[in-house]
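Lab manual, section 2.4: Encoding a predicted structure.

Procedure: take the sequence of the chain (204 residues), apply the prediction step described in section 2.3, and record the output as structure tokens. A sample record is shown.
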Amino acid sequence: MRRSERGKKGARKERKSRPLDETSLRDLALSYVARFSTTGAKLEQYLARKIRERGVAEDEDGRARDLDVTGTVTRFIELGYIDDDAYARGRSRDLTARGYGARRVEQALWAAGVEEQVRSDNAPAEAECRRAAALLAKKRRFGPFAIAQDEDMPSDQRHKQREKQVAAMLRAGHLYEHVRFILDASAEDEIEEWLEEAEDDGDF
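Recorded output:
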């Protein structure tokens, strides 16, 4: 490697490790919320980690400055840069669209630091949960979505296969009653009627 290249990389590394003050802390926060959909708790965790990694700049007397992480996060919330409710709504919609159930949605929102009431307000409704379960079964070719049923499969092997499918859907956060209905369905039409039933009840 040429000396000039080593010098450039060293300079970049030095800039990254520069201790933080209020201005650089705010700049980090702005960059983070511009790149990621996030919550107040996640932003606070990110800033705290950056302070641990880079340290805090000293003032004119050689003392470490006090950085107001909580105040920065609160200000961003007031400005509308962070909206936990919008985050929870989008995250819930994204996860169910990928075939995950209500329990996985709850876990993801809890891990992101979303408050209990906001998590409850944005939990997927019955119709959404059913659609997500059916979507996962279709993607994984479970139950009536299987390409073909092997009638010659030994009963113990068939039982193990079903247990694996149940476990996979439960890990994805689905209710057991939904899993059982889908795996016991004799045809795709039966699942379609089941989905329409929840939508007709207005439970979105």
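Check your result against the sample. The radius of gyration is 25 Å.
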